[in-house]
What we know:
Layout: H1 2-43, H2 53-64, H3 78-90, H4 101-106, H5 110-113, H6 129-143, H7 148-163, H8 171-175, H9 182-185, H10 195-205, E1 216-218, E2 233-237, E3 240-243
Antiparallel strand pairs: 1-3, 2-3
Amino acid sequence: xxxxxxxxxxxxxxxxxxxxxxxxxxxxxxxxxxxxxxxxxxxxxxxxxxxxxxxxxxxxxxxxxxxxxxxxxxxxxxxxxxxxxxxxxxxxxxxxxxxxxxxxxxxxxxxxxxxxxxxxxxxxxxxxxxxxxxxxxxxxxxxxxxxxxxxxxxxxxxxxxxxxxxxxxxxxxxxxxxxxxxxxxxxxxxxxxxxxxxxxxxxxxxxxxxxxxxxxxxxxxxxxxxxxxxxxxxxxxxxxxxxx
Length: 244
């Protein structure tokens, strides 16, 4: 009888040890699973059939900017997809109707895009360090031979386009819009900007606009489009004519 009791006790003890091992193993694995799931959710793209607050935010932004006229209901239906495609075309993005990292960024949804969204060192409101650097690259590529005022003027034109309903709503969208800037077409946009171009970008972002609201500029000695000459000239700075 004692032998049977000892075997039973040993069996119960072994079962308890196994149960504890399983429990602690499950607890150890749980945080990793939750973290992985959280990463998947954060990085998830929105597409037709998606629902939730991120969809609602996209709808609100697109409606405010005139791309979307449907209900802000948090449901990613055909009308929302069509509006996203319209926004993507206007911002030089692949018009696939899917809100992924680049579209999130163009919409200003920096957290979902995996970006910090921090302000640039110039202190201007609403722009990020990456915006400043990209604008400086454009200024350097397009106007590095111009006076400082002329360089700020080129930056101001880009920002005026961002504010205009005729153009994309982001600095990247404006600069990379198809055939908008020669520097993008010939690859000079990838040159490293100097300190002057960076300062010019910051001054433009802080509100200095030597063009008084112009949306276009061109060098009359190099321009080949007859259309650009039809624009109303506002001011000439260096070799560039600025127009509306």
